[in-house]
Design brief:
Elements: H1 3-29, H2 32-35, E1 38-43, H3 54-60, E2 66-67, E3 70-71, E4 81-88, E5 92-106, E6 120-126, E7 133-139, E8 144-149, E9 156-157, H4 160-163, E10 167-170, E11 177-193, E12 209-217, E13 226-228, E14 246-250
Parallel strand pairs: 1-4, 1-14
Antiparallel strand pairs: 2-4, 3-13, 4-5, 5-11, 6-7, 6-12, 7-8, 8-9, 10-11, 12-13, 12-14
């Protein structure tokens, strides 16, 4: 092999090695490339069922729970026990959460307030596939926040008449309270009509696949935490990262 051929071969080998290292690095920092979760969402009938009976309905329909258990940031290692399950009807999404954590708090003054500072569960989704995602955040007594937009900034909150159509039930009741220290188990059920996705005209999700993620947080709790269903590959806590959403496949 002459010097020129050897040099060309060496350059190609180095380029290949660099490319492989780049791919490996991207895979490590973007876990959605290898760990994107998918979930099938069962269709059920909500006829004559009130929101407080959604857990019993999902029991009857044998809808399984999924865990929200990914700790993405070493600075926040606390991991409460968090589960959710989801189903849909002709005109709504049904959500049921179960949580066991070291303390609870519900001080948000009203809808579209700082519910993420309380004991809070969240559902982010892109229902129309156009890049507009919704954040449905609810504290442990059913105080709700719904926002929409293409990114973290300049998000638009749902008007109160839209919020009022979301049915809510909490095992802790609906009254606000200061932080209660000590292990607590609580449940939350939501009936989210498609009209809650107020920037779109959704009529149903039958047969559709949408990208979504589920979270548990408590920014101002005794032990702050930030858990997700699908892993988030960024350096600091940030739930507004649709590139890390998983996939929900609606029957």
């Amino acid at each position: 092999m002459n010097k020129r051929t050897f040099a060309d071969s060496l350059r190609k080998s180095v380029a290949l090695l660099i490319a492989l290292l780049c791919i490996s690095s991207l895979s490590a920092t973007n876990p959605q490339k290898k760990e994107m979760k998918e979930l099938n969402v069962k269709k059920v009938s909500l006829a004559n069922v009130s929101v407080e009976n959604v857990p019993a309905l999902l029991d009857e329909e044998k809808v399984p729970f999924q865990s929200v258990n990914t700790v993405n940031w070493e600075a926040y290692p606390y991991k409460p026990e968090v589960q959710f399950r989801i189903a849909h009807t002709d005109d709504a999404i049904l959500l049921h959460y179960k949580v066991k954590e070291a303390s609870v708090r519900a001080v948000a003054a009203g809808d579209n307030g700082a519910v993420w500072e309380d004991a809070c569960v969240e559902f982010f989704s892109i229902p129309a596939g156009d890049g507009i995602y919704y954040n449905v955040e609810c504290n442990c007594v059913g105080t709700l926040l719904i926002g929409a937009g293409a990114g973290r900034n300049n998000r638009e909150h749902a008007p109160q008449e839209v919020m009022d159509k979301v049915q809510r039930w909490s095992s802790l009741g609906r009254e606000s309270f200061e932080e209660r220290i000590g292990e607590c188990n609580w449940e939350l059920a939501l009936v989210i009509p498609y009209s809650a996705f107020f920037k779109h005209q959704l009529t149903n999700l039958d047969g559709k696949a949408i990208r979504a993620n589920f979270y548990k947080c408590g920014d101002n709790l005794q032990t702050p935490h930030f858990l997700s269903w699908n892993p988030i590959g960024v350096e600091k806590p940030d739930f507004h990262r649709p590139e890390f959403f998983g996939t929900l496949n609606f029957e």
